Amino acid sequence: MDVTEQISQLEADLAELGSLLEKAERNRVKDVLTQERKKVEKELSVKKQQKEHLAKRELDPSAATKAAYTVKITNYAWDQSDKFVKIYLTLKDVHKIPSENVEVTFTERSFSVLVKELDGKNHQMNILNFLQPINEKDSYKKIKNDMLLIMCKKLSTQKWECLTKAEKQSKDKDKPKTDDNPEPSDGLMNMLKKIYDDGDDEMKRTINKAWSESQEKKMKGGDMMDL
Fold it and tell me: Are residues 143 and 161 both part of a single domain?
């Protein structure tokens, strides 16, 4: 069904809703019909905007292509459920362009997005090397008001600690390395060494004094035990 047919259907729905609203007597029924009429009016407005956009493109097919240049989408948010990893892309007025202008391609470990002719630009995004494989056949897109939602179907209910393998490697790299069986005093000695190396002369004198007093106490304690 093309945009013109969709507009005709929505106009017919709107007329019927108006007729039902005139006949309705109960307030609850009126409220439901009023809310539904608002939804249809909003959808009809979007479809009319899409029709205008298509008409302009048909008059001068090369105009949109010449004007559009591609920008990268860098801001996104993601969430997950047991079945899906969800990526949220905020794109103002994305719901006002034809749905065919929003292309999303999935593979087992990635997805790519190309949004054509939105605000005079093309918008592109690629995410590679998912942490876990997805089912590309059951993954899909949702176009919402000023937002594009990418639904990536998980192959298992396993929780993802991050979105990509690269993020996982970066996290692992940042983790402090520890010995398998460290001595209890090793951490303290390392910390004191770092404070000493980074400290000024006064700090170094303080640490040296504390160390000397500690060693003297140990030696005195040893002598008393010998006695």
Answer: yes
